[in-house]
Automatic annotation (TrEMBL):
InterPro entries: Aa-tRNA-synt_II (IPR004364), aa-tRNA-synth_II (IPR006195), aa-tRNA-synth_II/BPL/LPL (IPR045864), Asn-tRNA-ligase (IPR004522), Asp/Asn-tRNA-synth_IIb (IPR002312), NA-bd_OB-fold (IPR012340), NA-bd_OB_tRNA (IPR004365)
Name assigned to this protein: asparagine--tRNA ligase
Enzyme Commission number(s): 6.1.1.22
Pfam families xrefs: tRNA-synt_2, tRNA_anti-codon
Family matches, as PANTHER family: ASPARAGINE--TRNA LIGASE, MITOCHONDRIAL-RELATED (PTHR22594:SF34), ASPARTYL/LYSYL-TRNA SYNTHETASE (PTHR22594)
Name of encoding gene: nars2
UniProt cross-references to CDD domains, sorted A to Z: AsxRS_core, EcAsnRS_like_N
Length: 466
């Protein structure tokens, strides 16, 4: 019993371990607390030292005040520390609380000369990109990652609130959903075994899209979605392409028109953006004030606007009338390039715009053919957004067995996709869906120019660091 009493006594006296974001609520004022984090600034003034310590729980660092006797030469910018002390009301306007330190323990030292970030310097995103293993220690990149995490939650809550079932579609697959041949093949890395068979008995690849698997599931759940990594062997160094990116994909059964699809896409964009703005006020503010100044007005304009819709044919007309000097010529039937997409967005007043009914031959085999000869278009839609261009691609899917069979036969794919034809044989319904590039979404909301700056570890051709 006396042992238990002693344990209880110790627990009552032991400092309260807090995340720094919790320390800012004044609820624990006057208590003995312990925080752990990394030093963001150190300043010595007469008999005191002042530190700012950050633990990633929020953008704000906690000010620690200590007597000079607690100074330690290892206490440098970037070092990892554990501080115990009393949480007090701060005399300074900038923050409500500060920690009066009784003990500072340097857990991990950091040589400020070799550390690539310098105290009080604002490094741009391009500079940070050189240090994929360390950039999360900076304000800008840690804000980005907190926003990314909240944005992920925002997409999940949008789908949950709207009755969608989440499906874990496979990363390894034997099909090329987009038919573009941009596949990474998957095989075990056995050396010197030239005559071995395929591991899966058939060629297998990293997925380029979970759509076909979602179509399977929409045949049972009607509304389904998936949110996971997607891979494309695109030999591109562009500001909006990665070899590994995250895609949010949704598929809806009993859906008969592109209008019904664009409504879901617009609602999803607005709802998730609003949630990110509301849940990440300080982090988003850091971007909109210091990293991409002025971008907030553009986001507000997107949220206020009702997204315009134009057909591909109208888009080609607008581009044809433009006096802009495009690198790629525009004719009916051409694929729209980034420069064209950006022009169309500008034409609509810098708000997101839907472009519908693309030439059938530009779209993959699954797209539903419109009955509109001689043009021959598909019921497909792209959502183009300011600064980025294409954010989402979607379509109604060809649900008619005879039409789909004929298309697959033309492409010599009827055997490969026999299971896909089964979906049309057994209880087929009109359906459609779309995919949104998650990194492009973050670029659009934050105004970030380069896609490599919105993903923790970017993979692109000739680069797979770490
Ligand atoms: O337009 P995509 O190719 O559509 C599909 O894959 C459909 N199967 C999706 C579906 O209907 N379920 O790709 C969808 C989005 C694009 O609009 C773009 O935002 C993003 O994925 N995307 C990329 N993002 C980064 N890097 C790349 N290499 C990308 N390729 C596509």
């Amino acid at each position: 019993r006396s042992f238990l009493l002693r344990v209880r006594h110790y627990c009552d006296k032991a400092p309260l371990k807090l995340r720094i974001s919790q320390a800012f609520s004044t609820a624990d004022l006057g208590k003995s607390v312990k925080i752990q984090g990394w030093v963001r600034s150190v300043r010595t003034q007469k008999a005191h030292i002042f530190l700012h310590v950050n633990d990633g729980s929020s953008l704000q660092s906690l000010q620690v005040v200590a007597g000079a006797e607690l100074n330690d030469q290892l206490l440098t910018f970037g070092s990892a520390v554990e501080v115990t002390g009393i949480l007090k009301k701060s005399p300074h306007q900038k923050q409500a609380v500060e920690l009066e330190a009784q003990r500072i323990h340097v857990i991990g030292e950091c040589d400020p000369v070799d550390f690539p970030f310098k105290i009080k310097e604002r490094h741009n995103l391009e500079y940070l990109r050189q240090f994929p293993h360390l950039r999360c220690r900076t304000n800008a990149f840690s804000s980005l990652l907190r926003i990314r995490s909240e944005a992920t939650a925002a997409f999940h809550s949008f789908f949950k609130d709207n009755g969608f079932v989440q499906i874990h579609t496979p990363v390894i697959t034997s099909n090329d959903c987009e038919g573009a041949g941009e596949l990474f093949q998957v095989e075990p890395s056995s050396v010197g075994d030239a005559h071995r068979e395929f591991f899966f008995s058939v060629p297998a690849f990293l997925t380029v899209s979970g759509q076909l698997h979602l179509e399977v599931m929409s045949g049972a759940f009607s509304r389904v979605y998936t949110f996971g990594p997607t891979f494309r062997a695109e030999n591109s160094q562009s500001r909006r392409h990665l070899a590994e990116f995250y895609m949010v994909e949704a598929e809806l059964g009993f859906l008969r028109s592109l209008n019904d699809l664009t409504k879901v896409m617009e609602d999803m964009f607005k709802s998730t953006t609003e949630q990110v703005l509301a849940r990440c006020v300080e982090d988003v503010d850091l971007f909109h004030r210091h990293v991409t100044p002025g971008h907030r007005a553009s986001v507000d304009a997107m949220l206020k606007s009702s997204f315009p819709v134009m057909s591909y044919s109208e888009a080609v007309e607008i581009l044809g009338r433009s006096t802009e000097n495009f690198t790629f010529p525009v004719d009916w039937g051409c694929d729209l390039k980034t420069e064209h997409e950006k022009h169309l967005v500008k034409h609509c007043g810098n708000v997101p715009v839907f472009v519908t009914d693309y030439p059938y031959r530009l779209k993959p085999f699954y797209a539903r053919a419109n009955q509109d000869p001689p043009q021959n278009t598909a019921a497909a839609v792209d959502l183009l957004v300011p600064g980025v261009g294409e954010l989402c691609g979607g379509s109604l899917r060809e649900e008619r067995l005879d039409v789909l069979t004929a298309h697959l036969e033309d492409a010599g794919l009827e055997d490969t996709y026999d299971w896909y034809l089964d979906l049309r044989r057994f209880g087929s319904v009109p359906h459609g869906g779309f995919g949104l590039g998650f990194e492009r979404f973050l670029q659009c909301v934050l105004g970030v120019d380069n896609i490599k700056d919105v993903i923790p570890f970017p993979r692109y051709s000739h680069s797979c660091l770490l």
